[in-house]
Amino acid sequence: MPPKRRGWIGTARSIAIRPSSDTFLADRGESMERTFVRYDQLTQTLEKIQGADPIERFRNLPSFLDTDIGRRTLENYQPAVPVTMEGLFYAAAGFGLGYLVLSGLIRFCSLPFRRRRLYYRS
Asked: 3-state class of 63 per DSSP?
């Protein structure tokens, strides 16, 4: 586990959230304060998760959920299986072509083992 580096963060916090007469800097200070609070929450949650046994993690799972991270993950999620119409078309075509090739190969290989019909001349 990496060493705790809270000393320099405290210094950066005091610099970041200093009151300022400039609106941009004041807004930035508020944004940084929200970032620091969020960082502290995520750090505490990570420490709880790392210190818990598997059953405790499962039991406390709802308290570990982070809707902001989950929402952003779902926005950027791309499934590994192509589920577009084009992907479904290619999958169906590949299945059909594979079926035809495999059935033809099986029929060709089974030709020597087929029963021969007897033809009677009249």
From this structure: helix
How many Cα neighbours within 13 Å face the side chain of 52? 16
Please answer whether residues 102 and 110 qualify as being in contact, where contact means their C-beta atoms are separated by less than 8 angstroms: no
Residue 8 DSSP one-character state? H
∠ CA 77-32-74, rounded to 5°: 10
Residue 122 pLDDT greater than 90, yes or no: no
Count Cβ atoms below 10 Å from residue 1 Cβ, excluding itself.
5
Number of H helices, E strands in the chain: 6, 0
For 15-19, 22-26, 62-66, 83-87, which range has the lowest pLDDT when averaged over its residues? 15-19
Instruction: Determine which helix (DSSP H) or strand (DSSP E) holds 61, and give its type and residue range.
Output: helix 61-64
